[in-house]
Amino acid sequence: METSIIIETIVKAIVILAVFSAIAGFTTYIERKILAFMQRRLGPTNVGPYGLLQIVCDGIKLFTKEDFIPQNAVKPIFMIAPIITAATAFIAMTAVPFFPEFEVFGYTIRPIIADINVGVLFVMGVASVGLYGPLLAGMSSGNKWALLGGARTAIQLLSYEVVSGLALLAPLMLVGSLSLIDINEYQSAGFTSWIIWTQPLAFILFVMAGFAETNRTPFDLLEHEAEIVAGYATEYSGMRWGMFFIGEYANLFTISFLISLIFLGGYNDLWFIPGGLAIILKVSFLIFFFLWTRASWPHVRPDQLMWLCWKILMPLAVVNILLTGAFVMIVGSLG
């Protein structure tokens, strides 16, 4: 029995690693096409039908490009930093239930690697460790622009992790559990039981923090596209550079699954739509929303980003916790 569990866990880990690595590459193509459509451009068109083979070309370029390490860099740390970013992004997925249970040849498969009772805490904790990747990359590059990018990484990710953590406290108080499966079951009564209806402010705060934690426009100060340099990744090339952005897109999918599971009913059936398809549609819409925002909103300055975090979002999150706590106490006393 233990051997079968170990084999099943290894297979799940390999599948998740392979599938989300491939999806991360395909999402770059989708993003370029959506941005091109919204900005009246064509996007990738030359390689393959509709430019679909552009993904293959990008992959070949990443694997064959020179792996350059600056002379003044701290080489061991410089080499490890991209691995930290990619590894933490995929490790965070281990406690996420992607789909409902299903059977294959009479064998029940649970689409989650590790069903732990503190799933939310595990995902948030591991994802937060990912900030060490860009931070160490900037500090070890021997480049002042990369160092500034690493510093911006620290202030942005640490600040908005506070907001995302506080935003989740209120829904967790209602559910009474840190397990993502329990949170999903809490919303099993249908569309009206979704937590977004009782916690709309927490939903907005968590989504905004998600933009910052996944380095998406308008909160993309880690690797700022409007600058000549590339922030913490200035000195990186080839697959080491690619690992940073595989991790970034993996985090994008993780945060989209979290939003779907915690606020949008998870993988419960939605009317006539089965649960597995329902959560795919929710995550797909959220990914599109992240891309749509990139095409529509300008970048913000670092001081504006910090002002929004500490003077607007964090106080709102604290107020929401107090109101939810009062509500839970009143309901508990009446019940």
Automatic annotation (TrEMBL):
Q: How does it sit in the membrane?
A: Multi-pass membrane protein
Query: A GO CC term?
Result: plasma membrane
Q: MF terms per GO, please?
A: NADH dehydrogenase activity; oxidoreductase activity, acting on NAD(P)H, quinone or similar compound as acceptor; quinone binding
Checking InterPro entries in the record gives:
NADH_UbQ_OxRdtase_su1/FPO, NADH_UbQ_OxRdtase_su1_CS
Sorted alphabetically, which PANTHER family does this protein's record hold?
Answer: NADH DEHYDROGENASE SUBUNIT 1 (PTHR11432), NADH-UBIQUINONE OXIDOREDUCTASE CHAIN 1 (PTHR11432:SF3)
**Alphabetical list of NCBIfam families matching this protein:** PRK06076.1-2
Q: Which family does it belong to?
A: Belongs to the complex I subunit 1 family.
Query: Which protein is depicted?
Result: NADH-quinone oxidoreductase subunit H
